[in-house]
Every structure is written in structure tokens, then in C-alpha cells.
Amino acid sequence: MKRSVIIVAGGNGRRMGMQTPKQFLLLAGMPVLMHAIRQFHYFDPAMPLIVALPPAHIPTWTQLCAGRRFTVAHTVTAGGGTRFDTVKKALHALPETDWIAVHDGVRPLVSPALIARCFETAVKHGAAAPAIPLSDSLRLLEAGGNHSVLRENYCIVQTPQIFRAEWLKNAYRAPYCPAFTDDASVVEAAGYKIALAEGSRENIKITEPADLKIAELLMSDFCP
Amino acid sequence: MKRSVIIVAGGNGRRMGMQTPKQFLLLAGMPVLMHAIRQFHYFDPAMPLIVALPPAHIPTWTQLCAGRRFTVAHTVTAGGGTRFDTVKKALHALPETDWIAVHDGVRPLVSPALIARCFETAVKHGAAAPAIPLSDSLRLLEAGGNHSVLRENYCIVQTPQIFRAEWLKNAYRAPYCPAFTDDASVVEAAGYKIALAEGSRENIKITEPADLKIAELLMSDFCP
After folding, report:
1. Which of A173, B69, B168, B182 makes an SS bond possible with A137, Cβ 3.0 to 4.6 Å?
2. Which of B148, B193, B201 is nearest residue A181 as measured by Cβ atoms?
3. Which residue of A has its CA nearest to B203?
């Protein structure tokens, strides 16, 4: 059973109000993206790793890796204009594989145990995404206003999202659609079902400066 | 314009896997609930504060207040079996008021500025809840499986939720329904519209032990 992972690091840092793209920000002294890559390496050192970066950021990344002697082997691919295009291009860079994981490069705290759970669920069902319950109330926004919906009927999905390679490749043959918010939505649009694995609240996405501090705090619990 | 607030502290600590109910856990050396009360006091020292607690926890709370010389004046009411019953009972303990805020006792980081924004929106529209966008993807869970929904069409709602007193009291005359997940959903079921104010990601709800550490971290940013 051959497994590969695409780590998508397409952010340009605009949302963080910073010059540095969020995947390059330092978390406990190391760029966020290196943490994400390292977790997959811990899970399976033999698994091919593809890292998709905006073309403009590739030289910076190369320098960061050289300067820090980051030795986890990975292939860098140039991303496209959207996340959809980025993953589509990265699929071509993959070696022959049976299973493909797609992970957000700005989720540095993904644990090897979570990755293992998602692979197990994917192998059983063909496609898997880690999910966690909502702890706050949810409202649906509509043209005429907004209304309460039962949060128990929803879940939050994270990454890695893992797919039978054939399913993911088939799905990415479709034209882009704005409803594609993650890989699971692309695969689902192609007619496949997504199984849910148990996610983790610690597997946060770095979207704001405060998240870096929270991630550092959560890391100190992981690595005593 | 007379304003009051009901702070609901009904948790029994089961979800935290602890003996101590989460509203009594120490955050930066002070029980979570005291932080929440203090923020409303900072917002408006003259505003009547009702704190709804499970009857079994009232003696502990009284001791905590005495032991820590917590001098923010508040009225304690005994909660009911559900959050709905608890708020309903607390409504009877309120002095005459034009506007009622209802706040989760386990949201200790609510800022006076956020409370002010919610009151402004409520005064304009009759009912207001603070909302923030979702930063993760969302899935709808259904009998046959689950499917992707556009997270842009949803928002997360927090507290304080603030209502014209008459609206809230009318709404709480309805029989309990499982779709009542918060006060906004109760008021909405009575036919009133809920306006959204800008929430804050820092206004977190303490639901897990890790949240206490995150809250402490966020506090250190607030109070340099």
C-alpha cells in the first residue's frame, strides 16, 4: 500500500497583516510549514512528501531549508492561482501511489496518531477527513437575515484529508467550482462519500497572529 | 434605558473530567465565573447582575466569594434542570429593566468593548448576538452520511446575547424545545429577528482543560 502526502502552503500572509506568509512564521523557533512536514515524516519516514508553494515563495523556502539544515526530504511544486489549481498541479508531481493525503501547511500540530486514524478510516471507506464537534452555537446566514441551526447536525473538518488516489485524481478532473472549499468537497462533488475520522482540537489552523501563541502553548503540552 | 445581565453558570464539570465545575476553575488565580462577572462590572458598574448557579453549587460559590473578598455586587439564583429552565427562573429575579443580556459564565474573556457593541446593536434592532466567521470547513451530518456546506454561509455565535426585555420574557413563555441551543434561538422561535454584532475570537468558551491555558495566554495580551 503506497501512501503520499501533498502539503499545501499557498498563503501569502495578507490575512495575518504581515509581510511573511503564515507558513513561514516561526513557531517555537521553526517555520510553521517545517512543523507540518516533520509530523508527516514522524508518521512515516518513507512516505513521499510534496510541498506546494506559490512560485514567488519557493526561493525563500529553499533558503529557509538550507539555513536551518532542514533535512526531511520533500519535493517542492509551484502552486496555482487557487487552492484547487495548486492541488491539481501537485497531483502531477506525485510518484505512483495508492493513497493521497492532502494537508494544510498551516496546521503544524497535526499528530502522527491523527494521521494514522485518518489513513485507517480512508483505507476502510475510500475517503476520510478528521472532524470535531462545534463548541459554539451556529447560525445560517441568508439573504433575509440569519437563523439558528442545530450545531449537533454539523461538524468542523480539518486536514489531513485522505483519499484513494484514483478518486482524488478523478475528482480533480472537474472544472473549478466555488463550492470547493477543501479536497473532501471536490471528491464529494465527483460522487464519492467522505467518511469522518476523529479529529483533534489541537490540530489548529494558523490564521491569526494569536494562533501562533496558542500553537506554542499546545506544543508545550505535546512535547514535555 | 435600564440594562441587566444574567450570567448562566450551569456547568457541572462532567465534560472537563473534573470534580470542580468549569465555572469555578482558576484562570490566572481567579475562578472563571468571577472574571466574567468582573467584565460586566467594568462595562457598567451600575448594571444589576444576576448569576444563575445549580443549587448544589451555591454554597461553594458563596464561600469562594467570601474567601476571595469578591465585592462585585450580584444576585445569585438557583438554576433549573436545563439551560432553558435556568434562564427562565433567572428572569423572575431581575429588577425592572428595558434590556437583558444573557452571558455564558464560562466566557471569562468577554471585553467591555464587545459588550458595548452588542448593546448598541440590540438597541438598534431589538435583539443582538456577537458572531464570528468560521475558520475551518464545515460539514452537515445527515442520516445517509455527511456533506460539505459553504462555511461563508454560516457564523459562530457567542454571548452576551442581548434582547429587549419584553421580547426575551415573551419568548421564554414558550414550552421547552430541543432546538433551543441559546437565547437567540428561543427569541427567534417567538418570531423576533436576531441582529449580529461583531464578536471576538478571544471571547472563548471554557469547555476543555486546554481552554484554560489558552484563556490565560489571551489574557496576558489583554492586560499587559
Report:
1. B182
2. B148
3. A136
